[in-house]
Amino acid sequence: MKNSPLHTWNKKMNKNFYIEIHLKKNFFDAFGDDLKKSIIEMGITGINNIYVSDIYFLQGEISKKEMEKIAKNLFLDSITQTLTIYTKPPEVHNKKIIEVWYKKQVSDPVSITALKGIKDMGINKNIQIRCGKKYQIDADIDKDITETICKKLIANTLIQDYRIS
Amino acid sequence: MVKVLILRTSGTNCDFETEWAFNICGAKAERVHLLSIINGKKNINNYDILVIPGGFSYGDDLGAGKVFANEIKLKIWESIEIFKKSKKPIIGICNGFQVLVKAGIIPFWGKNSASLTWNNSGRYEDRWVYLKIESSLSPFFKNLPEIIRLPVAHAEGKFVVKDKITLNKIGKNKQIILKYVKPSGEISGYPYNPNGSQENIAGVCDESGLIIGLMPHPERALLSIHLPDWTRQKREKVFGYGYIILKNMVEYVS
Amino acid sequence: MKAKEIKIINLADKELMDLSKKGLLSLNLEEMKTIQTFFKNLERNPTDLEIETIAQTWSEHCFHKTFKSKILYKEIYNEDFSTEEIPSLFSLIKKSTEKISKKWCLSVFKDNAGIIEFDKNTAIAFKVETHNHPSALEPYGGAATGIGGVIRDILGVGLGAKPILNTDVFCFGPLDISFENLPADIFHPKRLFRGVVSGVRDYGNRMGIPTGNGAIIFDEGYIYNILVYCGTLGIMPKKYINKKVSVGDLIILIGGKTGKDGIHGATFSSANLEKNIPNSVVQIGDPITEKKMLDALLIARDKELISSITDCGAGGLSSAVGELAQDCGAKIFLEKVPLKYYGLEPWEIWLSESQERMVLSANKKNFLKLKKIFDNENVGYSCIGEFTNSGKLEIFHNKDIVGDIDLKFLFSGIPGTSLRANFTYIHQPDIFPENINFQEVLIQLLSHHNIASKEAVIRQYDHEVQSHTILKPLAGIDECGPLDAIVLRPMYDSNKGIVVSCGINPYYGEIDPYMMAGCCIEESLRNLVSVGGNVEKTAFLDNFCWGNINNENILGTLVRCVKGCHDFAIKYDIPFISGKDSLNNYYTVEKDTISIPGTLLISAVSIIEDVKKIVSSDFKEPDSFIYMLGITKDEMAGSHLYKVLNMKAGNVPQPNPEITLPLMKKIRYAINKGIIKACHDCSEGGFAVALSEMIIGGGYGANVDIEKLPKQTDKKISLLFSESQGRFIVEIDKDNSDAFKKIFSGAPFYCIGNTTPDFRLNIFFDKEKIIDIDGEKIKQVWTGALKW
Questions:
Q1: Interface test with chain C among A158, A160, A161, by most C beta carbons within 10 Å
Q2: What is the assigned CATH class of domain A5-164?
Q3: Where are the domains of chain C?
Q4: Percentage of residues in chain B having pLDDT higher than 90
Q5: Which of A160, B87, B217, C471 has a CA positioned 20 to 30 A from the CA of residue C505?
């Protein structure tokens, strides 16, 4: 968890939330499909499917109720997506999940827009947001291959941190 | 003179050509920033047509049109409701369509019943498409042939509905106004349907037909020389199909 | 936070160099000593802010030392050689523009972009920049901030122009190389290609500026160092082309907040790609902040509230404020700069290259009006100081003085340098491959990524936002045919137009950079002439991307190329109005350096009277005459045919302005008269590729006899694939044949065949059929080769 904003979980502010926005299964995952093609081009076999979701890490003086309101009304498109709110860091998986975040000193316009959107909802609180992407790889591969995929195709360690879990 | 309000915000970028387009159609268009509406400097209901133009409002961060749609819902909903009740036309083009749908203005007022999501390609795409006019519910699509050509340019233009019931309902109500087709008029897949829209839907309206949302850009098809292959055609006509649609709107009001 | 004193006045030479290296100052010994002497005379040490400011201002990136140096140049040909002293490369290019002296050139080589007249009241500004190193490290962010930067150049030219077009030219390694052969710190070309295109796409599209002209080259020479050229064209009322700072004007910083981003970007970009790169050099873009700034600035300009403006690019505030204050002076209060986060040292605030910021000056009485505009548009701003007549930059941070820099020293204190450069002619014997299957080779050429359709990229760019785009990058049947140039109709109430095109070909430069300059110049002209552009009202931009110019032989190729630009600009009578160089694009492997091929990009912009008269390259009808204009020769060196065959031999193409310039004027005349229905120039891949492209867009076939081409060779291979300059294929109505012949009398031309209803390419040599391919096959190969 060192290479991820999640290592500050509970360290800074009183409330921490990890939000994941997934595409509903009946919608075509264009980004997952694209990544799958690139992995196959690299000569890696055994990939069944890849699911890409948006993740947000929020820290601040917000209640769970407010968090739900923000997630539902701002982050979620209820027609095409579903939502999971974690109040603890998500569990470790089978080394096939990659999370990518911009490093702290890289300013991410999406998080600035998210803060604006929260303010529009009348929630004027001190909140910090980090936005990221989560890649769930459904495949018969080991951690080294996951690492290679991550470094060669997904993350750029110059500006991003990643975590494989 | 017909007064058109072109509602812009941070990231709107088709406002100038939309203003020009309505002016050519004989209206008096004015680009107004959302902040001026929110802080009461301008009143939507002093205008006859409301346009939400194309662009990338707030960068399309958190989903195309989402943040703008939320602002409409939270900050100017009442004014829009009055506008609708006065039976004045509203048009959302591209990002404007995304805003209208995500704010729950179309296809059904106050309901979250549809969305515009990522193209099947996962990428932004700019191309001219063939469109079939499916319905006469909206009065703005008269004096046009059955098949017209307009450009689309978007990343999140795949129209999807909440469920089968919604789809049946907008079909039965004749709220589907444009569908992506082949030049021959048949329904077809990519590239004729550029984004994978359900039922090839390119534009819908509300139950009255006065509030319309289009992924294609009429303001980019105003002149015949906007067509991508105009150098192959006889150079006689001055205007493109986009002009006729917008002109119909202006004439409807006047 | 206070400034740190940097002890310099008592350092020995070696210690000076250590300081330069460790501090990432990228200054040489002579420069360090000049600074030392300057401060010795002041009897004090510089602060960290002061020395960093000087290093930035004197960096290759900001000051263009190489282009301003005196050069002793030697050309070697067999046993002979000649030498010449060149005052500077920059002055050489400028000299050609002065000689050509066009009165419609309104501002050249002095502002952020070149400006030419559009009509009585309107001007257009054009600039192309490069963002190579950052894009190699982080393709998406690097390319996005590259386009963001050049857009700000246009926003900051004169009192600001409105961007109406972006252009993009990229050079990558081949997409099909294996992952295994790449060093760990180099991204695969495919990732770079996708990342760069996506970066330009997401930034340009969000800005609401169409992206419409460009080129992509794939070659082994760019595996380690990619090239990313981004251009922007803007339009402005003529009355706003000049800026003037007055003493007492406020200095206003507008746009995004300041962080540690890009510290040492300017000094870094002229050092080669080192392995340990501080991550602060790479940033991702925030186009919406820039869009808000664009909206606000154009309103402020039109209300005549600003006296001067420039962008914060390399060197950040230090460059922007420094440039504007050059002739007067300024006081700056760094605590007034809005920060992204706490913890920035004063020098970091001053030098930060955070994107999406610009500096403007305004009379105090206009401040409230400006404030209102910025608030309405939701744009960040802060008044950070004012202009003075002190001749100095006086920089404060919370009342502490952190810098006090003499402007004269800063801008003219840099010691002049003198460099040596050598160029050796390469003579390659003529060798012609035998037993070539022309048909197979043509298919190979059409599917070569440099030649094949770039549709996979083009469609991702919004090329028609603003509704000005009249000739789009793809046209013809199914919008699948190539177009030579983009045409804009920038005013909603006028049919007057702008044509934009480019020329790039590093392969000729491997043999002779002088001829490469001529060919790139000509290619850009041929492209715009093909659609109806006017060579008599055309201006150029030059962009030189070169390798390790510390090597005298590599510097020699640059000199030779600049000489070519000078000479051919004069011969074609086209002025350069602006330009840029990016040097030291090389990669270090142990002790070796791998330089990129010297790469010149020529971008051309032309003004036309009536966009309704233009033509496209696709064949329009069956049964028209096909004419060939221009002479074909055995000029195979650097050709794509030889690239495909992996051969190096023969002569590089030589432009012939004496023949081609009058020909280009005739073509324009004939297009305006409506006599030419389709026109396409022959470039990469020669005649056979150009003809194939006209078929693809037209959906009709062609039946031609290459024995009839105007020519100085009888070799079939040359007639099909030579890249001789000055050649165009045109389609003419049979009824217009006489009128056509009359216009072109005296020029080299011949009727070589006709278009056919049957979608098929038939090429004969006299009676012998040498190519016979189904049109669908050609189309499929050409359109399908370059995949995303």
A1: A158
A2: alpha beta
A3: 13-67
A4: 97
A5: C471
